[in-house]
Amino acid sequence: MTLSPIIILIGMRISAAATLAPVVDPWVPTSGIVASIAVQTLADAPVAMIQKDAVPMAAMLVERTGAPVTFFNVNTKESETFVLPYDGVLGQADKQRITHLFRCKRTGHELAPDPGLLKILARVADHYPDHILEVVSAHRHNRGTARTSKHWSAHALDLRVRGVSATNVRSFVWKMEEPIGVGYYREQQFVHVDWRAGEEKIGWDQRTEGSAYHYWPRWTGGDPHKKKTAKAKQRPSRHRALRSAQPQS
């Protein structure tokens, strides 16, 4: 066994974390620096040790720097397998593959998915290992899509996790402390996820295909704006509080 293929394999998986992500999210199990040290350790190890331990070590490093996942496009019937980096930054070859897989199903137009969206999908893949992620709709570039749509800018994906209920996926994604949009489409049983940097987190239901959106349904915990308004109304004014403290005749 030669060392070069092993180092190349591991290096491919950690390159984004090691070179492009100076700030690592707190939930990422390890950093690119740690992974790089492990690669160097492997390079310095005796050949006998490499033959015995290299494959488990490679698998461990892949696990820690990204989430293995297979996407299946339900429209084109294409499948692609990736290790999605936790920082959302793919290498050029993988970026081209996922851009093609996530292309507009009506026009074929391609736009690379935003790294923020890929960060969300990496966490979904990590939470549901060995489950195929079905791509219902990704980038949209057709006449009926609004320019403000997160699908238009490749910040959104409608998906199913094969073998997992849509409500389970919806609940998991909604718990993320990220600037995201989460939509639950009851009739079609898929979940919309999008990355919306600089915007507030928002959730909605669509009960039947083509019907109006119901924003802030019960599973979101309710509209946070209404809660703030209700608390403000409950707070007694300073004038009223002082008057109530005076002795009554």
Please describe the structure with a list of short key phrases separated by commas or semicolons.
249 residues; alpha+beta; Muramoyl-pentapeptide Carboxypeptidase, domain 2; 2 domains; 8 strands; disordered N terminus
Can you put this structure into words, describing what you see?
It is a single chain. With 249 residues, the chain is of the alpha+beta class. It has 2 domains: 4-65; 67-223, Muramoyl-pentapeptide Carboxypeptidase, domain 2 (2-Layer Sandwich), CATH 3.30.1380. It has 8 helices and 8 strands, in the order αααββααββαββββαα. It has helices at 4-19, 32-44, 47-65, 92-101, 115-127, 166-174, 224-234, 238-245, and strands spanning 66-73, 78-85, 133-137, 156-161, 180-185, 190-195, 202-206, 214-215. An 8-stranded mixed sheet has the order 2-1-3-4-6-5-7-8. A hairpin with a 4-residue loop joins strand 1 (66-73) and strand 2 (78-85). Helix 1 runs antiparallel to helix 2, helix 1 packs parallel to helix 3 (47-65) and helix 2 (32-44) packs antiparallel against helix 3 (47-65). It is globular. The chain starts with a helix and ends with a helix. Residues 1-45 and 239-249 have low confidence and may be disordered.
SS strand fraction: 15-25%
- Biggest sheet, open or closed, and with what strands and sense? 8 strands, mixed
Number of strands: 8
Uncertain runs are 1-45, 239-249
- Distance N terminus to C terminus? 97 Å
Shape: globular
Question: What fold name goes in the CATH topology slot of the largest domain?
Answer: Muramoyl-pentapeptide Carboxypeptidase, domain 2
Q: Treating each run of at least 4 consecutive H or I residues as one helix, how many helices?
A: 8
Structural class: alpha+beta
Order of helices and strands: HHHEEHHEEHEEEEHH
The main sheet orders its strands as 2-1-3-4-6-5-7-8
Query: What fraction, in percent, of the residue positions are helical?
Result: 25-40%
The top level CATH class name of the largest domain = Alpha Beta
Q: Would you identify the CATH architecture of the largest domain? A: 2-Layer Sandwich
